[in-house]
Structures are given as structure tokens and as C-alpha cells.
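Class, study these two lines:
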Amino acid sequence: MASAATATVRGGFWPQNGVGSLVSASGRSHGREQVARTLGTKGLLALRETARALDGVAPGGAALKALTRIVAAEELGGKRVVETVNLINRVTTAADVTEINADLLTFSTRTTFGANPPANRDGNPLGTR
């Protein structure tokens, strides 16, 4: 976890009320929070639970995630039926590790052009010659 950031307050409301510096609440980077928020969406909960099941252990653990929802009914009143929907309920495999690495690390790895980088004589970001 990143260390907390501290900001020195120079003027305005806070210094007038005895506050000379402010410390960040969590100290976490924006990127980690964005990833956590994204993995919290319903579409990616199965991936998150698979990653959680594989955290620190070899494949073979159970990945479980179930949600409850109210079943649609034609009538407006009365008692509603609640059903359980299993997003994932299975044992993890080695293929899950490959899938998670491909899904989460695809855009974070560096790519190189090797010994022959493309010419970019006109400065075009698309790399035209």
C-alpha cells in the first residue's frame, strides 16, 4: 500500500480554523481504486472471485459468487419470489491463471519493436513512414 500524502494548507478556511496540513484518507492510488470499482461490477464479479480463490494458492480451490434477485411478476402487489443466481461456482484450474493474467495484465506489459522499430519521420502518433 502506498504511503499517505500530506498537503500543506497555505490560506483560506482551513488555516483560519487551525489546520495547517491535510493528510489523504486512504493513501491508495487512484489506479487501485479504479480497478477495484471495475472488478466490483456485475459483469466482472466472476473474474474477481476466481482471482480471490487463486490468491496465494495453487489452482484447485473453489471460486464461488452468488447474487440474489427478485423474480419478475406480472402482478404489481403481493409477495415476490427471491432467487439465487450463481455467477461462478466451480473449482479453479491452471487455465484460470492464464485467463486472469491475460485479462488484467494485457495493457500493463511493455511492448517493444525489437531491433527494427518502425520509422516515424513525420511525428505521427500512428507511426506512419
About this structure: Strands lie at 6-8, 21-23, 62-70, 82-91. The chain has a mean pLDDT of 77.
